[in-house]
Amino acid sequence: MIKAFFLDFYGTVVHEDGEIIKKITQKIYETGKAENKSEIGTFWWDNFQNMFINSYGDHFETQRTLEKKSLENTLEKFCSTANADELSNYMFEYWTNPPIFEDSKTFFKSCPLPIYIVSNIDTTDILKAIEYHSLTPAGVFTSEDAKAYKPRKELFKLALKSTGLKADEVIHIGDLVSSDVKGAASVNMKALWLNRFRKAIPEDVESIVSLLDAFDRLK
């Protein structure tokens, strides 16, 4: 019997920071030496991911720290004269007041089960974003709490232990197959891929196009 939903936040409840990333990339392109903007984006993402996957346990670093470091590395790589603090602040400000998806509001108001946020983000930032939209989750668990990022097991295990729920009593919903679906599966938890943009569905992945579709999976 399903007793609760675990819910990713950025990209699931609220919009991702894609437009801010484009803005920052444009500034690096204008102030640096890159052949094209995609070259900047690829380097920045790869650099961030390399640090991200190695950030856990005693080597854990917050999302803000990782983003700042990867941005500084990107500025250095492309000889950009842009200010790292200024560019980082564009992103950090977005994290605390991101625009929300309309179905998210309805989901929180009409959900018959407790909703727990399980997110790869720093605790202070997500609490501000939740307050900004007046959301009322039953609990919030972050990568900063677990000292590890999805798809590693630590964050899911922390959420289960803290709520007293078993893996088969929860459905996790998220917008990324790589971290949400695979991460939940690693602890034998049912997961729904929130495929808002109707992308091709990988084999053995159960998907929905709106958060409200998750209610049908309780029947």
| Strand residue content | 5-15%
Beta strands, count: 6
**Helix/strand-derived class?**
alpha/beta
Strand order of the largest sheet: 3-2-1-4-5-6
* Rg from alpha-carbon coordinates: 18 Å
Low-confidence stretches: none
- Cα end-to-end separation: 10 Å
Helix/strand order: EHHHHHEHEHHEHEE
Number of helices: 9
Mean pLDDT across the residues is: 97
| Outline | globular
Portion in helices: 40-55%
Largest sheet: 6 strands, parallel
Produce a short descriptive summary.
The protein is of the alpha/beta class. The protein has helices at residues 18-31, 37-53, 63-77, 84-96, 102-110, 123-132, 143-146, 153-163, 177-185, and strands spanning 4-7, 115-119, 139-142, 170-174, 190-194, 207-208. The chain is globular and about 55 Å long.
Describe this protein with a few key phrases.
219 residues; 47% helix; 6 strands; 9 helices; alpha/beta; six-stranded parallel β-sheet
Describe it for me?
The longest helix has 17 residues, at 37-53. α1 packs antiparallel against α4. The protein is of the alpha/beta class and 219 residues long. The chain has helices at 18-31, 37-53, 63-77, 84-96, 102-110, 123-132, 143-146, 153-163, 177-185; strands at residues 4-7, 115-119, 139-142, 170-174, 190-194, 207-208. α9 links the parallel β4 and β5 (190-194). The relative contact order is 0.17. It has nine helices and six strands; from the N terminus they run βαααααβαβααβαββ. The chain has a six-stranded parallel beta sheet, with helices on both faces. The mean pLDDT is 97. It is globular, with a radius of gyration of 18 Å. The chain is 47% helix and 11% strand.
